[in-house]
Amino acid sequence: MNFLAHIYLSGDNELVTIGNFMADGIKGKEYERYQPDVKTGVLLHRAIDSYTDVHSTFRKSKSRLFSRYGHYSGVIVDILYDHFLAKNWDTYSKIGLEQYVDEFYDSVERHFELLPLRAQRMVPFMIADNWLLSYSTIDGISRVLDGMNRRTRNRSQMNHAIDELKTFYHDFEHEFTEFFDELIQFSSEQLKALSINQ
Predict the structure, then answer these.
(1) Using one digit for the tens of pLDDT, what is the confidence trace for 8-65?
(2) How confident is the model at residue 195 (pLDDT cuts 50, 70, 90)?
(3) 8 A C-beta contact, residue 101 and residue 133
(4) How many whole angstroms separate alpha carbon 165 and alpha carbon 163?
(5) What is the pTM of this model?
(6) Which terminus of the chain, N or C, has less C-beta within 10 A?
């Protein structure tokens, strides 16, 4: 899953959310040097990624892209699923997306010193361009895919995946909805188990 989903699945604990958000920049057992709630967030992120990678519905979405984008197809589906979460946000949260995103940006700025260097370099761009809110529109997702393609020096051709999003829009949305309901349940159970063990 991509940024918005990971943040949402962290629940209400600010430090768990920060840990989940920054987890890609934490290698191996580096997470052990952080306080318990941050550690929980990192481990939750890893559990979500492992669950997602083997889930049949996610793999179905991914297979639609694989012949054209190869190993980048999973990254693309992560981004597309964040679009459907943002687009249908009111189904999942009582707090409006704009307010939710603003509160997260405030939180990540408060805890900026906790972030690994990779995340510290990224956050100013994320906030300035309001990535999380932009996920709710096709234009926003197109900009994200363009940026990801540039980061691969145009090798991934991910910018073209907006074509598949438009062509198979309802298929992707149905798969996201089916998958995300199960992921919410899984994440809730993982969060409880991890919190007990920290």
Answers:
(1) 999 999 999 999 999 999 999 999 999 999 999 999 999 999 999 999 999 999 999 9
(2) confident
(3) yes
(4) 5
(5) 0.95
(6) C
Query: How many Å separate Cα 75 from the centre of its chain?
Result: 10
Query: Does position 196 have pLDDT exceeding 80, yes or no?
Result: no
Half-sphere exposure at residue 11, Cβ-oriented, CA atoms within 13 angstroms: 20
**DSSP H helical ranges for the chain:** 3-8, 14-22, 36-54, 56-69, 73-87, 89-92, 97-110, 117-128, 131-134, 138-151, 161-167, 169-197
Q: How many CA atoms lie within 13 A of 198 on its CB side?
A: 21
Spatial CA neighbour of 161 closest among 179, 180, 176, 143:
143
Contacts of 22 (CB under 8 A, 6+ apart): 41, 42, 114, 115, 116, 119
Instruction: Specify the residue for token string 């074509």.
Output: 163
